[in-house]
Amino acid sequence: MEVSLLVWIVTIAVTIAFFVFEFFAHVRTPHEPSLGEAARWSAFYIGLALLFGVGIGLVSGWDFGGEYFAGYLTEKALSVDNIFVFLLVMTAFAVPREYQQKVLLIGIVIALVMRGGFIAAGSALISNFSWIFYVFGALLLVLAWRQAFSDHEADPTNSRAMRFLRRRLPVTEKYHGDRLTVELDGKRYVTPMLLTIVAIGVVDLIFAVDSIPAIYGLTSEAYIVFTANAFALMGLRQLYFLVGGLLKRLVYLAQGLAFILAFIGVKLLLHALHVNELPFVNGGEPLEQVPEIPTWLSLIVIAATIVVATIASLVKTRGQLPEAEEQPHAGDPGLDVGPEGDEDVEAERRADDRDRRASDEAR
Description:
By secondary structure, the chain is mainly alpha-helical. The chain has one domain (5-356). 69% of the residues lie in helices and 2% in strands. It contains twelve helices and two strands, in the order ααααααββαααααα. The protein has helices at residues 5-27, 35-60, 62-92, 100-128, 132-149, 160-168, 192-216, 222-234, 236-243, 253-274, 295-316, 338-362; strands spanning 181-184, 187-190. The protein has a two-stranded antiparallel sheet. Helix 4 packs antiparallel against helix 8 (222-234) and helix 5 (132-149) crosses helix 7. The chain starts with a helix and ends with a helix.
């Protein structure tokens, strides 16, 4: 697939323009989007992604079009898992609902920038070292195992990055609008808003580790990898508000994603054998008799897995209403974050108890 420098420049410029539009049209004025607004824009970005895939198929051939759709489906499915962790982060840091859009947009931009670096590095490795397919394949099998059996309930407020920041920077206990820093008594403090964005960035970095090898298992074209990632991330903010309350019903999501990652891992290992150059494997000669999994089969398997995991989850949780989690708003008093806030509250309680005991003794 031949992609000129001009096409790359235009693609990146249009992607940046979309995010600038997102900021000024939806995020600049803090508000919680309605269900209708989230649904309309989510449908718009999904439709745009599908039209782009059709364009690739018509211009460059349907082999590349199929690779794009397989990659986009995989990235979209993984992005739903992103949303689940984002929801944990937002809840743990008690981010007011009207400010969550800003956190998400900044986090998504950070994710795309980091993934761009991973994509460039992956493309360079694939172009120069065929053995990297073995590494990617083995990595995806390990990640599939972790996806199936890992615990997403870890406290994001107590990660190493958060502990490091709290030791190095003065942090306010409460939010100050959507500001990242604030000056109090002549001293500059960072707000919980900044900590939340850092936590989202750490989550994005972790997810990029399985996202990029997974899509490189479906296509070796860096342009397809980038555009599939960009379109999957573009509608992530709207999808968060659209399906956030339903995520607890997708009880088989982790198993479905684990199967997809394992399938792509096997596909990569088969391809690695097919183009083998390692001297200790078949004398450094390719094993051409090893079958390769075609793109159309990958597309069917990925789509079918997503459908089966979703239907099985909804059947399993049939009759259960989505849990309406208590989400804070900007006007709510005492939005504490992290262990420090809990310690302050406990200290105040102990002080109150001492005052009451002293008062009783005085009587």
